[in-house]
Amino acid sequence: MPTRVVIAEDEAIIRLDLKETLEEEGYEIVGETGRGDEAVQMVKDLEPDLAILDIKMPGMDGLTAAREITSDRRAAVLILTAFSQRDLIEQARDAGAMAYLVKPFQRSELVPAVEVALGRFQEIKELHAATSNLEDQLETRKVVERAKGKLMDEHSMPEGDAFTFIQRTAMRERRTMKDVAQQVIDGAVTPPA
């Protein structure tokens, strides 16, 4: 599947040049606009892999648009602008941009910038998924430990038996150990007398 791209550039000639260049390189342009606010909406509606944003646009500037797009990891963002001042570069970085390209650009600069942005974005998504998984594992462990403690205190079960009870109940009922442990804590699940 080709990489899907939204282009937000207020200069029509540059937007057309970008579109032609990217299409020749095998990318699929799914949306184009000259406004930042429309770019944000297009990213929400079209779910592209990449949004290329100019900084200075009507409706919403590219940095604000980048912040909105990257806040929920909707797409990689590449800032394409005529401005190379350090403070704008830092603002773009802080807004979540994965790459920054200064106009006028060459084809030999555009494709590497796009690929770097896509690669960095994929790494961030994978790190977020790994972090979420670890957080869930930690939360599960905490709930299971509390449930084991309750079984040990209220039902005089040894720790290993308390764990085995939670585990077997989860397998028998085809539910997660976290769900069963929470029900033990709430008193909805108890071991047989």
TrEMBL record:
GO BP, sorted A to Z: phosphorelay signal transduction system
Domain ANTAR: 124-185
Native organism: Actinomarinicola tropica
One Pfam entry name: ANTAR
SMART domains named among the record's database cross-references: ANTAR, REC
Keyword annotations of the record: Phosphoprotein
SUPFAM superfamilies named among the record's database cross-references: CheY-like
Listed PROSITE patterns: ANTAR, RESPONSE_REGULATORY
Modified residues (4-aspartylphosphate): D54
UniProt protein name: Response regulator
Listed GO MF terms: RNA binding
Domain Response regulatory: 4-118
